[in-house]
Specification:
Strand content: 15-25%
Helix content: 25-40%
Shape: globular
Number of helices: 5
Number of strands: 4
Radius of gyration: 16 Å
Length: 184
């Protein structure tokens, strides 16, 4: 089976809808929607907090393909940022995948990652756990946000190529204060 290197919003939206509707992941009678914002930040202002916004950063494994030279690479350090809130029976999730640039060519454009179905499901499992805890008051039995380590070895993380590192929220980033902003 070929490895997906293409950013596929439809995969995320379809999986979100399937997990909500078929698997009853958030079975409280509220309507939830998923949207994308490719420039959203990981901070929540006081005003946004008053309006119920929360942030969750998920660390995932995925694949990239350079639009210029077609080089492909695997990464175990992809940050997916989720902002969410529940208000008046309507929930909204806004997500942003962080990209990486190609090491092999001079293209400095961030490439968006591709993910296999199981990694998308894992991200939503963790997100829905956060939503159940923060919006519905359920106890969380899954507070480990990092994906289990796979046997697949990768090259050392290159912060200069990582959009999340540049934003100060990469899990590889040693600045734990920046990373902890995503844990609320």
């Amino acid at each position: 089976m070929p490895v997906s290197t293409e950013w596929a919003p439809a995969l995320w939206r379809d999986t979100f809808d399937e997990m909500l509707n078929d698997d009853n992941e958030l079975d409280y009678g509220d309507q939830w929607t998923l949207n994308f914002n490719y420039s959203q930040a990981d901070t929540v202002t006081k005003e946004e907090k008053k309006r119920g916004w929360k942030v969750y950063c998920h660390n995932a494994h995925g694949n990239f393909e350079c639009a210029s030279c077609s080089k492909t690479w695997f990464s175990a350090r992809i940050v997916v940022l989720f902002r969410y809130r529940l208000q008046n029976g309507r929930g909204i999730v806004i997500m942003r995948p962080f990209g990486q640039t190609c090491r092999s060519c001079s293209n400095d454009q961030f490439q968006r990652p591709g993910f296999p179905q199981d990694k998308v499901e894992m991200a939503f499992d963790r997100l829905f756990s956060k939503i159940r805890k923060n919006c519905y008051g359920e106890e969380s039995d899954n507070d480990d946000d990092d994906e289990p380590r796979e046997e697949k070895l990768t090259k050392p993380h290159e912060s200069s190529l990582c959009e999340a590192c540049m934003a100060g929220i990469c899990s590889q980033n040693k600045n734990k204060k920046a990373v902890s902003r995503c844990a609320n």
